[in-house]
Design brief:
Layout lengths: L1 H21 L7 H39 L1 H18 L14
Helix pairs in contact: 1-2
């Protein structure tokens, strides 16, 4: 869902930038100023959306590296599990069935 949000933010920013450049002229009409301000607000919202979702792409690249070296990570995980099982020392439970005098 975040990837869709990222692509949608980029797409809407492109459209808003196109209309901003296409309709740009020197004018002091109130309607024109409001229209341009709304386009600027829309573009700033899209920039914030892209900034929020960019770490998703960076994290995706890291996951791809793990996927490429999956056989290595399986070997490492297996040796780590064996070592942890070997290092665990089991404590004996106290014997509560003894008769005390």
């Amino acid at each position: 869902m975040k990837i869709v949000s990222l692509f949608l933010s980029i797409f809407v920013f492109g459209i808003a930038a196109y209309f901003f450049v296409a309709d740009f002229r020197n004018s002091l009409e109130l309607n024109y100023i409001i229209y341009m301000l709304l386009l600027l607000i829309l573009m700033s919202i899209c920039v914030v959306g892209v900034m929020i979702n960019v770490p998703l792409l960076i994290r995706g690249k890291r996951k791809m590296n793990v996927f490429l070296y999956n056989s290595f990570s399986k070997k490492y995980a297996g040796s780590r599990q064996i070592r942890l099982k070997r290092d665990v020392q089991y404590k004996k439970e106290p014997n509560y069935h003894q008769d005390t005098i």
